[in-house]
């Protein structure tokens, strides 16, 4: 068990008290690092809280009475020490997905049956989340299986401190837990603690370096392998496989070849040799993450090849070892002429990738951002997700809050992610649910394709650093927890997950603490949306660092993030009739719902349409008045939230209370700056006054 001075997040000692007070039998019967983690967790909890642990030897054959003499039994399936009743039921309904586990409560004994060692670990933490309730009543054998095979976090950490992006690109929680002073840290105790936290919530894959691969990071593939192996050794006991982001140009920049052409035999041989070296150092290595032909990163376009050629090059090198390529679909022209309204950044991923459906090898996962632009507070679901049924596809979310307050604002993203994952890609209409259709979650899980299709899952950019609270803003821990739990079960109710996180992180807290946390976090995504870029138009942030309002900051830049506001109106015409044609990339019914201003949802209106300031929304107010109202009200809610938090001083740890209070004060300041700039901008462009008479500058 690794301990550090960092905040324990959702695994404080108190959270394991209900387990630690009991008599626990661990009957795994195998020598396995994940089983060793289960044993260590139980030993530590029972030693602290007065319980007892029995670890059955591999050749033990315990009687039923010996098994029932324990309050909790943790066993692998099949196991000679498992209780008879669940063992007899196994043939009927045991899941096949790695990480699955069953739970039975009979008499005075709660039994967890792990399908494999990760399942045993996940089952243990299922009991931890249940708390005292895990030892109450009788329940039949119930199986729990992960919906997604891939439950992955990407770290945008740089080995060297980048002169613009720093140690962690888009990181808001201090430095890297992996790197310091231009190399992998000697002391990796924070990584060990991080692995424990992630394993407890089912994460099974981590990429440890930035997708924008710079000179030093590129050599993790070669000179850095001993240190990569050190990191992998710390994740392995928690069922987590390490991945590396690699540069497509590595054969040239690292290997000294004259080309990186994916069809060149020497390039293919170079990658095959490097992959073999990686697996010699890290036998359970997961694979590569690749950003290619995007924002200046090299790729196959330089050789007249396409993304399938590039991805398959790496996939074939990894195939003999069971590795996977995660090929990012975030590809667009970042040198766009702002005068050219026919070029649309939102179209780019679909234009590049949909013609390639069916051409990727089966160990390629196409990693697609949830929206067509860039992790905005509000944007439509990416049409790529619905367009590639013959390709393994993972949906990419962003836990780090690049465009949602940068962990200075309390913005819990669970409702946004749940809305995305439940989104029906086809159905009866905008409000028609999913009859006969697929959800985003279905596609990511691989359940929308043929029965023999390989599954993928969910990936997110992590939000942790070497900050004492891991995430900068202590309440941003809820985003990391919620992502992991949704990756296990996308159908989970986000409010239930938030309540889980509160109960684990603040055990035995006064009910007012729970109420206050819900008050601050429940509607925080929509509150943030209310005082920032309106109606799906996106961005309006300071260029470069992306924090704070700058309405026209990107308007005349090459980045393709425009809103086209003028005296007459605002928004981007992406219709087929008069605009960029982006609506045509969607399946029915969305292609027509988004095309028509009368059926387009208000929250996406400005993403799809350029409308007058006086245009009346479905809500009954004009676009201008909507901005006036929402920005005033959203900023006001930040003041109320800060006051509510102040009122529970003394009921949570003082250092945590102070950090949250400091961040909430900054959120109040920033929200009011957003409020005043957006309201003033609209008035100065439209000439329409706020109907309520509130101050506009």
Structure, briefly:
The protein is of the alpha/beta class and 697 residues long. It has 3 domains: 13-144, Chitobiase, domain 2 (2-Layer Sandwich), CATH 3.30.379; 150-494, Glycosidases (TIM Barrel); 528-572 and 610-686, Alpha-glucuronidase, C-terminal domain (Alpha-d-glucuronidase, C-terminal Domain).
- Based on CA atoms alone, the radius of gyration comes out at 26 Å
How many domain modules? 3
- Level-2 CATH architecture of the largest domain: Alpha-Beta Barrel
User: What does the main sheet amount to?
Assistant: 8 strands, parallel, barrel
Strand order in the sheet with the most strands? 7-12-13-14-15-16-17-18
In percent terms, what proportion of residues is strand? 5-15%
Task: Give the rounded overall mean pLDDT.
Answer: 94
Number of strands: 20
Residue ranges: pLDDT <50 for 5 or more in a row?
428-436
CATH class of the largest domain: Alpha Beta
Q: Pairing-aware structural class of the strands and helices? A: alpha/beta
Question: How many helices in DSSP terms?
Answer: 23
First and last CA, distance: 57 Å
CATH superfamily of the largest domain: Glycosidases
> What is the helix content?
25-40%
Gross morphology: globular
The name CATH uses for the topology of the largest domain is TIM Barrel
Identify the quaternary structure here: single chain
């Amino acid at each position: 068990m690794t301990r550090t001075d960092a905040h324990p997040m959702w695994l404080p000692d108190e959270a394991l008290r209900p387990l630690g007070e009991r008599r626990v039998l661990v009957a795994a019967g195998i020598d396995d690092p994940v089983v060793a983690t289960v044993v260590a967790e139980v030993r530590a909890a029972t030693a602290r809280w007065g319980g007892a642990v029995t670890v059955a030897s591999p050749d033990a054959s315990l009687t039923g009475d010996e098994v029932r003499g324990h309050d909790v039994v943790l066993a692998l399936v099949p196991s000679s020490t498992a209780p008879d009743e669940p063992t007899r039921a196994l043939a009927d309904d045991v899941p096949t997905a790695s990480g699955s586990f069953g739970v039975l409560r009979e008499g005075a004994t709660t039994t967890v049956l792990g399908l494999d060692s990760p399942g045993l670990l996940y089952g243990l933490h299922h009991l931890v989340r249940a708390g005292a309730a895990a030892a109450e009543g009788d329940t039949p054998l119930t199986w729990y299986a992960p919906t997604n095979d891939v439950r992955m976090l990407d770290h945008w950490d740089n080995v060297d401190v980048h002169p613009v992006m720093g140690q962690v690109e888009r990181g808001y929680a201090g430095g890297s837990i992996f790197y310091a002073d231009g190399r992998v840290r000697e002391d990796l105790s924070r990584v060990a603690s991080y692995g424990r936290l992630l394993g407890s919530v089912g994460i099974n894959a981590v990429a440890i370096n930035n997708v924008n691969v710079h000179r030093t990071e590129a050599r993790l593939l070669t000179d850095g392998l001993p240190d990569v192996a050190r990191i992998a050794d710390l994740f392995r006991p928690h069922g987590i496989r390490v991945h590396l982001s690699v540069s497509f140009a590595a054969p040239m920049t690292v290997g000294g070849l004259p080309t990186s052409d994916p069809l060149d035999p020497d390039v293919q041989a170079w990658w095959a040799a490097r992959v073999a070296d990686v697996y010699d150092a890290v036998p359970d290595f997961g694979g590569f993450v690749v950003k290619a032909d995007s924002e200046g990163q090299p790729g196959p376009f330089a050789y007249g090849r396409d993304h399938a050629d590039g991805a398959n090059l790496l996939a074939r090198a990894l195939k003999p070892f069971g590795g996977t390529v995660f090929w990012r679909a975030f590809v667009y022209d970042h040198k766009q002429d702002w005068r050219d309204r026919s070029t649309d950044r939102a179209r780019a991923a679909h234009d590049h990738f949909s013609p390639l459906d069916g051409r990727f090898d089966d160990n390629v996962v196409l990693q697609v951002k949830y929206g067509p632009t860039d992790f905005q507070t509000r944007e439509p679901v990416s049409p790529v997700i619905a367009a590639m049924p013959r390709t393994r596809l993972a949906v990419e979310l962003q836990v780090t809050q690049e465009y949602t307050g940068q962990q200075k604002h309390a913005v819990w993203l669970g409702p946004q992610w749940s809305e995305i994952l439940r989104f029906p890609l086809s159905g009866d209409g905008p409000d028609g649910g999913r009859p006969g259709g697929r959800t985003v979650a279905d596609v990511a899980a691989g359940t929308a394709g043929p029965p023999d299709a390989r599954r993928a899952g969910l990936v997110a950019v992590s939000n942790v650093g070497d900050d004492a609270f891991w995430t900068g803003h202590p309440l941003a821990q809820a985003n990391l927890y919620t992502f992991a739990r949704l990756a296990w079960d996308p159908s989970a109710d986000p409010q239930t997950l938030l309540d889980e996180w509160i109960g684990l992180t603040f055990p035995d807290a006064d009910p007012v603490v729970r109420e206050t946390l819900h008050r601050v976090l429940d509607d925080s995504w929509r509150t943030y949306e209310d005082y920032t870029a309106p109606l799906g138009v996106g961005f309006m942030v300071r260029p470069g660092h992306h924090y704070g309002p700058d309405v026209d900051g990107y308007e005349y830049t090459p980045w393709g993030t425009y809103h086209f506001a003028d005296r007459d109106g605002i928004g981007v015409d992406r219709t087929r009739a008069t605009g960029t044609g982006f609506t045509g990339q969607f399946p029915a019914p969305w292609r027509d719902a988004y095309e028509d201003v009368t059926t387009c949802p208000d929250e996406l209106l400005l993403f799809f349409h350029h409308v007058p300031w006086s245009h009346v929304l479905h809500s009954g107010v004009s676009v201008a008045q909507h901005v006036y109202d929402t920005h005033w009200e959203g900023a006001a809610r930040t003041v109320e939230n800060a006051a509510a938090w102040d009122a529970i001083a003394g009921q949570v740890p003082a250092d945590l209370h102070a950090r949250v209070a400091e961040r909430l004060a900054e959120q109040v300041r920033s929200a009011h700056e957003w409020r005043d700039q957006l309201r003033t901008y609209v008035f100065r462009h439209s000439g329409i006054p706020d109907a309520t008479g509130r101050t506009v500058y």
